[in-house]
Amino acid sequence: MPVLLKISNAVELADWEVEITQIRAQGAGGQNVNKVASAVHLRFDILSSSLPPFYKERLMALSDQRISKDGIVVIKAQSHRTLELNRQDALDRLQELIQGAVQVQKKRRPTRPTRGSQRRRVDKKTQRGKTKALRGKVM
């Protein structure tokens, strides 16, 4: 099974799981843009992939516009001029999406502001109030 994308040490995606098609790039680009299909459309089905269940759950829970309700990731890469670079860019973005979804966020521990920072904040507010008070009409 040829490996197309390495997500982590234990998780890899095979080339049959990712569907890559060539399309024409949009936007300005001169004469060449209308002739050459150098943009890439990447489709990846989360539910039918070989990803572990934890990965699938986390990806499906994401509220990302690139992921449809059916669990299909669609990535369009057209920022480079060559097909190879766009293909690699789309694969890199898919890898980032999957790795970002399974990354566990550190629990936030609430902290209190220090006494010095509180005092500085109040002093700045007082100073600002004095500055504004000086803007009044002169009698």
TrEMBL record:
Domain of life according to the entry: Bacteria
Gene Ontology CC: one annotated term: cytoplasm
SUPFAM superfamilies tied to this protein: Release factor
Known EC number: 3.1.1.29
Listed GO biological process terms: regulation of translation; rescue of stalled ribosome
PANTHER family, alphabetized: PEPTIDYL-TRNA HYDROLASE ARFB
Full protein name: Peptidyl-tRNA hydrolase ArfB
Organism in which the protein naturally occurs: Marinobacter daqiaonensis
Lineage: Bacteria, Pseudomonadati, Pseudomonadota, Gammaproteobacteria, Pseudomonadales
